[in-house]
Amino acid sequence: MRLSELAEATGVSVATLKYYQRAGLLHPGTPVSRTQASYDQSHVDRTSLVRALTEVGGLSLTQVGAVLEAIEEPNRGSLGVMAAAAGATPLPVTPVDDTARAQAWVTARGWRVQTDDPLVGSLAVAWQAAEQAGIDLDEIRLDAYADAVEDIARVDLDSVPHDPQRAVRRVVLGTVLLDPLLATLRRMAQQDLAIRQSGQNVRA
Amino acid sequence: MRLSELAEATGVSVATLKYYQRAGLLHPGTPVSRTQASYDQSHVDRTSLVRALTEVGGLSLTQVGAVLEAIEEPNRGSLGVMAAAAGATPLPVTPVDDTARAQAWVTARGWRVQTDDPLVGSLAVAWQAAEQAGIDLDEIRLDAYADAVEDIARVDLDSVPHDPQRAVRRVVLGTVLLDPLLATLRRMAQQDLAIRQSGQNVRA
Asked: Which of B107, B151, B190 lies nearest to residue A147, judging by beta carbons?
């Protein structure tokens, strides 16, 4: 198909497709003349993926590039996969001075996360921001959240294919793309629980 | 304190503070002369909150305005609080044609969510994006995630203060600001689980 047809098939404008190509996020088509190239299903799939990562996953194009790189790198161990997934995510990056409390909590929890892992910094930032906004969030409550999140991680890892190449793709994309899905489920569950607790009856 | 001192106290530039004021996100100071105003702790708190919502919560300034409005509106029932929290969040908004599958799942689950609730559309978008990216996500797996997320919602609602005004603030901010914290915990739990499953020993 032509570029204009790729645009039609994916709902992404020709200008944006050209931009994806310049940024190295979309591979070139097969040249059919000096000015035209032909595109196939692999271009449709890739374009849909880039779009999902930006629009649903909330990633910048730079972060999309990092995700694609992680997906395409073969022979990465399971830890490398996790690190790639964690690195390619729109988490807070503002550094905080004090990560000691976050580190102490992680250690007490027994989670095997390296002390120099950027995730510890992300946790410290998010924890501090929540408390500064007046949200009570002590270690006990954090543990209650962590208990539930471990169940989520178990579902995440249960569904990882054995084939390493597909495993990387599944973990990286699943981590990024399911964040908004889990956030949506959280809001639905809050609503349902609030209705039950208030004893109100609302027809679904 | 002066505007320049407010900037110093919060780490937000004078230009940005003026922008917050023009956008109605930061209340005016008390005039002390024709060209100067005096600012107090309430301005420090508000500025920190706006900053947390944008930098940690990932909200646009328009969304920050919606959150602040929800926080300041008194006498909102618990359902109104939930709706405000859900509405003031950076969730996918691209409409999809088919929300029937998402709606059917919500109904089967027994969650009391209105059929016209935008959350159903958000779920449909995120679900479709995940599947298009090649992530297996059937109703059974979605239920497994939902079980864990219900535990999270229970912790969310356990910590809501009885005072309605404070309750709104807690729920709205907690929903927005704890999304990135939960996303960070998810990545840590994945890492820990991957290490345990692979039998590797890594010193924490």
From this structure: B151
Cα B12 to Cα A28, A164, B62: the distances in Å are 44, 45, 18
pLDDT band, residue B202 (cuts 50/70/90): very low
Helix (H) / strand (E) element for B31: namely: strand B30-31
Tokens 């969040």 -> residue: B89
Q: Which residues of B touch A77 (CB under 8 A)?
A: 198
Which residues in chain A have Cβ-Cβ distances shorter than 8 Å to B133?
48-49, 52, 173, 177
Quote the DSSP letter at residue B25: S
- Characterize the bridge pairing of strands A37-38 and A30-31: antiparallel
How large is the angle between the packed helices B164-198 and A118-132, nearest 10 degrees?
Answer: 170
ipTM, 2 dp: 0.75
Pick A135's closest partner by Cβ from B106, B170, B183: B170
**Closest in A58, A83, A86 to B58, CB measured:** A58
List CB contacts (< 8 A) between A195 and chain B. Answer: 79, 112
Q: What is the pLDDT along chain A (204 residues), one digit of tens a residue?
A: 999 999 999 889 999 999 999 999 999 999 999 889 999 999 998 898 888 888 777 777 887 887 787 777 655 565 666 666 666 555 555 556 678 899 999 999 999 887 777 888 889 988 988 887 778 899 999 999 999 999 999 998 887 777 666 676 777 778 888 888 999 899 899 888 877 877 644 443
- The rounded Cα A76 to chain-centroid distance in angstroms is 18
For residue B196, the chain A residue with the least C-alpha distance is A112
CA distance B125 to A31: 35
Distance from CA of B99 to the nearest CA of A (A): 14
Mean of the pLDDT values across residues B138-159? Answer: 92
DSSP of chain A, one letter per residue? --HHHHHHHHT--HHHHHHHHHTTSS---EE-SSS-EE--HHHHHHHHHHHHHHHTT---HHHHHHHHHHHH--S--HHHHHHHHHHSS-------S--HHHHHHHHHHT----TT-HHHHHHHHHHHHHHHTT----HHHHHHHHHHHHHHHHHHHHT--SSHHHHHHHHHHHHHHHHHHHHHHHHHHHHHHHHHHHT-----
Burial status of residue B191 (CB atoms within 10 A of its CB: 0-12, 13-18, 19 or more): buried
